[in-house]
Each structure stands twice: as structure tokens, then as C-alpha cells.
Design brief:
two-stranded antiparallel ribbon, mainly alpha, 21 helices
Length: about 475
């Protein structure tokens, strides 16, 4: 125990304010990173509420598909598997990685598992492919290859990835809230999106979202501590009142109604239902390897982009844009991919919604302890955890998207077209293709080609050429008949 005189207590929102003393503060480096315990707690709550929808959405995506034998996964068991894996991996990232990056079943990867893998094999076989992809990710980290790929990314492209993620999560927020919706293909129009439904903003849920956006931004402008979390809680209460007094046809995935029975008994029946190599016997070695490669590519670069974007926004990177201790974070991400397969909840990966917690001031893994703890509680209180409507939570994504954009766009050298054009491609392709991986892949290919065209090919790190080639092969797979 230190015998020095205690320092003067800081004001409520100064660095060190509310920071845990002793071992907790030293372990998570809360004060050292300029954070406080209240900020970390608020950040953990904000991240949880921003991504709690995955407890409902992941079972819907996986539970709606059938394997080659016509079997479907049980919805209740999927809810348990999704919440349990999110809790375990988020806590692991917080305690060991010490970063405010929460993890859960990855959107996009779960669709690959449900629509590409499962129909050609059994569910345990499909989840075994996910586990193998996780093992490969861990191997790439252990050999240092994954870190070399990340370190090879030029500073300007790193900033573009962060901006692309900001734009991507803004679009996610707009779509999930119903402020923007997809125009059905039967409309025979070249315009893919529209305002609201039928080109108009209709209904109480959209009003809750609009009011939530205005409230969040107003609180941020006023520099109110906990602006994002305050807005989420306030708009959830407003939504509950509206739902009680008005006839609301649908709120989407979650309805803001206090459940009659808030306690749900978890069903762990899917945990461990995995066959590592059974899928190869069903589809052959080459196709099996390509399936693992597809899952691997999505997990590898989705997580890479998210980790880079969130760590940059949380000011955890150095002057070169690199994060100290990144290997631990990357290895845990590989463990998370394998854990998702082992629990049958599909590959688990870093969530861009972690930026909601960072926007609240989270800078350490203690925020993850809070988020992971809430996912653990959700195992037994799923009806309560999923009562926050997306219209109350998604305004946070718009606010954070703006903050990322404002903080990163000026860092790109727009005068150098060999970096400016790839940066532009990266940041626009993420929202336009609804994929972090696509944004990174197209940006990397453009960067390599333009540097070669400008006679500056030697300035491109070999790892960038290798990754660009991998992406080029990935995009050519359908033309080559390999999908």
C-alpha cells in the first residue's frame, strides 16, 4: 500500500475522477488512459444497449435455415448460445486485452453459415468449419502474420477504415430504426433505398428515433456526461409510454413493453455440438477449404477494421496509428471465432457498436467487463435485455459515426491521389456494400494498383500486395466456379 499523501480529488469529469483506486485502477490503467470509473461503466452500458439486438437477431438468422437433413436449430437454445458466447468473449477481451471492444455473433458471417454451409452439411459440420477458421486466425496471430498485415496498412488507409466504419454504423442505425428502408426488387427501380416507408416517415417508432437523434446530439453539444446512455434510457421510457397508449403495429425486433415474466431459463443444449471435419466428407476437401477460407476472410478483415477503427477513436493508438499490445487483442478475436462455432452461435467477432461505449468515454477493458456482465445477466433476463427498441438505441450510432468522421477525415493526405483515392474507395464501399470486409478489400486492391501505376510500387509493403492478391482471388472465385 502506498504511504504517500492522497492526491486532491479531481472534478467529476476530469481524468482520474471516479477511477477505481489500487489494484483495479492499475490493472485496467483507467486513470493512465485519462478515463474514470463512471465513464467506463456508462460506456459498458451504452455498448450493451447498442448491440443487445444480436440476442434476438442471431437466432432469427440461424434458426430460419435448415441443414442438408432438414434440421433447424432451436430458437431458445440459440438465444442462450448467443448471449453466453458474447458474455465470455467480451469479458475475455476486457480482462486480457484491456480494450473497450465488445464481441458477439458476427452479422454477415452468420448468413454465410446459415445459407452457404448448413444446406450442404449438418449443423455440427457447419459449426466445425467456423471453429477451424478460428484456429487458423489464432495460427496467423501466433506467427505474427496478422499483426504484420495490420502494421503494413498506410496511415491514410487506417483513417479511411475508421471513417468507413463510421459511415457504415450510421447506415446501420438508419436502417435498423426504419428511417431508411430497402425498396423491394419488384419495384423495378434503380434506387435501392428510400426515406422511411414509401418515401415518407410514418409511425411512432420513427418519431422515437428522430427525437432520440436530436436529444443525443443536443446532449453532446451541451457536453452532458453520459449523453448517449441518457438518450437511450430516456427514449426507451418514451417508447414504453407510446406503446402503452397508442396502437403501434410493429417496433421491429424488440417491443418496448415490460415483460410479464422477465426471467428466462437458459438452455445450453447447443454448446459443444460440433464436428470439426465432418463437413469435408460431405462437400469434399477443396470445397471445404474454400468454405473455411470464406469464413476466415470475413472474420479476419471485419475484426481488423473494427479493432483499428475503435482503437483509433478511443485514442489507444500511437503516432503511427498502431496499437501497443495488439497481438493479445487479435489472438482473443481468434479465440472468439472458434468459441462462436463451439457454441453453435456462429463466428463471434468484434462489434462496431463498441463505438457507442467509446463515445461515452470508455477507454479500457473495464467497460467490457460491464458489457460482458450484462450479457451474462441477459442469459436469465433476456426478455428485459431485449425490451430496448432499436429506435431508442440506434441514435447512438449516428452520433458516434459523426464523431469518427469529424476526428479522422482531416488526417488523410488528400493531395496524394495514390492514398486519397483508395481511402475514398474504402470509406464509401463499407456502407454501399454493407460490409467492412469489402471496403477494406477494394481499398487495398486500389492502393496497390495505383502505387504501381504511379511508379511507386516499391513503397507498398509486401504484405499489402499479398492481401490485395487474396482479395482479388476472393472476388474472382464466382467467375472461376469456386463458390
Amino acid at each position: 500500500m502506498s504511504t504517500s499523501a492522497p492526491a486532491k480529488a479531481p472534478t467529476p469529469e476530469q481524468p482520474g475522477s471516479g477511477a477505481a483506486s489500487g489494484a483495479l485502477d492499475r490493472y485496467f490503467r483507467i486513470t493512465e488512459r485519462g478515463s474514470t470509473l463512471p465513464r467506463e461503466i456508462r460506456g459498458g452500458f451504452a455498448t450493451f444497449f447498442a448491440m443487445a439486438y444480436i440476442i434476438v437477431l442471431n437466432p432469427i438468422i440461424l434458426g430460419s435455415a435448415k441443414d442438408m437433413y432438414g434440421n433447424q436449430l432451436d430458437n431458445g437454445q440459440l438465444v442462450t448460445a448467443t448471449a453466453l458466447t458474447a458474455a465470455f468473449t467480451t469479458l475475455l477481451m476486457g480482462v486480457i486485452g484491456n480494450v473497450p471492444i465488445a464481441l458477439a455473433a458476427g452479422l454477415g458471417v452468420n448468413s454465410v453459415v446459415a445459407l452457404q454451409l448448413a444446406p450442404r452439411m449438418s449443423w455440427p459440420d457447419a459449426m466445425g468449419m467456423v471453429v477451424l477458421a478460428g484456429f487458423v486466425v489464432m495460427l496467423l496471430v501466433a506467427t505474427g502474420l496478422r499483426e504484420r498485415v495490420m502494421n503494413a496498412v498506410p496511415y491514410g488507409l487506417r483513417k479511411a477504415i475508421a471513417i468507413g466504419i463510421g459511415l457504415f454504423i450510421m447506415l446501420i442505425g438508419l436502417v435498423d430504426a426504419g428511417f431508411v428502408s430497402r425498396i423491394p426488387d419488384v419495384a423495378q427501380t434503380t434506387v435501392p433505398l428510400q426515406l422511411g416507408t414509401g418515401g415518407h416517415l410514418n409511425g411512432w417508432p420513427v418519431l422515437v428515433f428522430v427525437l432520440g437523434v436530436l436529444l443525443t446530439l443536443a446532449l453532446i453539444v451541451r457536453k452532458v456526461p453520459g449523453a448517449i446512455l441518457v438518450s437511450i434510457v430516456a427514449m426507451t421510457v418514451v417508447a414504453m409510454v407510446i406503446d402503452a397508449v397508442a396502437d403501434v403495429p410493429s417496433w421491429g425486433l424488440t417491443t418496448p413493453t415490460w415483460p410479464g415474466n422477465p426471467v428466462a431459463t437458459p438452455d445450453f443444449g447447443l454448446i459443444g455440438q460440433v464436428s470439426l471435419f465432418g463437413g469435408f466428407g460431405k462437400v469434399g476437401v477443396l470445397t471445404g477449404v474454400l468454405f473455411v477460407f470464406t469464413v476466415l476472410l470475413s472474420c479476419f478483415f471485419d475484426a481488423m477494421g473494427t479493432i483499428m477503427g475503435v482503437s483509433d477513436e478511443a485514442k489507444l493508438t500511437d503516432a503511427q496509428g498502431q496499437m501497443p499490445g495488439i497481438n493479445k487483442v487479435l489472438f482473443i478475436d481468434g479465440v472468439a471465432v472458434a468459441a462462436g462455432g463451439a457454441s453453435s452461435s456462429s463466428a463471434t467477432t468484434a462489434f462496431v457498436e463498441s463505438t457507442a461505449g467509446v463515445g461515452e468515454g470508455a477507454r479500457t477493458g473495464f467497460a467490457n467487463v460491464v458489457t460482458g456482465g450484462l450479457f451474462a445477466v441477459a442469459l436469465f433476463l433476456t426478455p428485459v435485455a431485449t425490451m430496448v427498441p432499436s429506435q431508442a438505441a440506434t441514435p447512438a450510432l449516428l452520433a458516434v459515426g459523426f464523431l469518427i468522421l469529424a476526428g479522422s477525415v482531416k488526417e488523410i493526405d488528400w493531395a496524394d491521389y495514390t492514398i486519397a483515392i483508395p481511402a475514398f474507395v474504402t470509406m464509401v464501399m463499407m456502407p454501399f456494400t454493407y460490409s467492412i470486409t469489402n471496403g477494406i478489400g477494394m481499398g487495398f486492391i486500389t492502393f496497390a494498383v495505383l502505387r504501381l501505376a504511379a511508379g511507386r510500387g516499391r513503397e507498398v509493403p509486401p504484405a499489402m500486395y499479398a492481401v490485395a492478391a487474396v482479395f482479388a482471388f476472393y472476388y474472382l472465385m464466382p467467375a472461376l466456379g469456386l463458390t
